[in-house]
Amino acid sequence: MKVIGITGNCNDQAESHVAIRLMADSSILLSNKPFFVPDFAPQFVMHPAIALRVNRLGKNVASRFAHRYYDSVAACVAVEARGDNVDDRGDARFTAFDGAVMLGDYMPWSDMPESIETAVAINDAIVATTSTAGMSHDFDHMIELVSTYFTLKMGDIIVNIDNSKSHVLTIGQNLTATIGGKPSLKIRIK
């Protein structure tokens, strides 16, 4: 299983191109598990994201067939290290460490509205949202792009990360997220 992070795909982002990051499966932190703040950087920020689960094997998938390659979505939060000693060019040590992808419970794609929104709250106050309506390229085009370079396999996760929105994480916070208005993610920051 692969975790494929996509950045630069939101209309309001300053990035001029889409970037693809591969992450280890140990980067995934499932809902209801605590996130322990690592000590290798002075600050960690979260970005709202939407995760798509791949449900079949595919290579070089045309966008018109891409809807056959996923079946569910989840609210997701991507965590990134920040600080003076941290390289800000997407170094995997600072963007793909253990627990860097907080993944909520999946919801069937068929139960989602046309425009899917994820809202992330810290201590019950919404701090960030992202939506498929704000994506420059929809998930069908993301499947086409990613499958050009990597063979998609059942269980792979494609995470569309909205890097334009962030919030600093601190010990003691309760992080929750919804997708399509339904609860999906609950994490305690320790």
Automatic annotation (TrEMBL):
User: Can you say what this protein is called?
Assistant: Fumarylacetoacetase-like C-terminal domain-containing protein
From which domain of life does this come? Bacteria
Q: Name one GO molecular function term.
A: catalytic activity
Q: Residues in domain Fumarylacetoacetase-like C-terminal?
A: 25-159
